[in-house]
Model the fold of this input.
Amino acid sequence: MKVKVLCTACINENAALPISEKRDIIPWVTIPLQESKIYSFKCEKGHSCKVIVSGLKHEVLFESGVLALKDGYFREAVTSFAASLERFYEFIILVLLMKEAKSNKIGFDKVWKSVVNQSERQLGAVNFLFFKEFGKAMPTLDDLKISKNDLGGKTPVEFRNGIIHKGLIPTSASAINYGQAVTDHIVQIITEVATTREDLLLDALRYIQANDFAELGEEQPHFMTNAFFLSTLSIFHSFDMTDLVTARTQRLTDYIVRVNNNGMR
Ligand SMILES: [Zn+2]
Done:
């Protein structure tokens, strides 16, 4: 997967131009996806540039899955969707512990360290935190009304485990169905959190952004804001395709067709 970014210096040089002309003059730079959100590159005019590619980890991983689907790598797509879901649970843990993370960062980091490499512990943590905050059990992936036929006779969790742990190779249709199930599950949870604890959600987004800036140091950043399929911000704001209603109902199959225009390759 590759990410498309724009050079900040080129943007500044052409600041006075109308957007339609800027599009033709400022070239996109294509860089392989990397772990750090801070991308260093040289544009074709020779400017050295550093940018932050915005987007939460689960959004980027999900996008990687969509691109794998588009290119016909169905097993890789499912592993990306599954990783996206795990990172999403991590994000919700942060959201629901925002008060503690801000008031006692050292303590929070210590607790975080004890679960960071163990997804089952994280799942336990997010379930209890969700229950405490909302007074009900967090919906699970297997609660979704998916026909077993959609996933080769398996539940979403069985399907995921077969691919991750047993090396099974999914069909195109089952990989898409799994991606859609993960989407519906994530949107269901994020909508619940956004509806009742928007304050915590926005706080967590600001917290993550502040950490990104801290990593960037003194450099002047340019934020590339991708209209990710699973954009958490789309719950609040309208991007190219999303208001809350659309965000909750968008179909993965439609998005795969449009993904080439979304800043990712
Ligand atoms: Zn440049």
Q: What stands out?
A: Residues 57-261 form one domain. The chain has two domains: 2-53, 57-261.
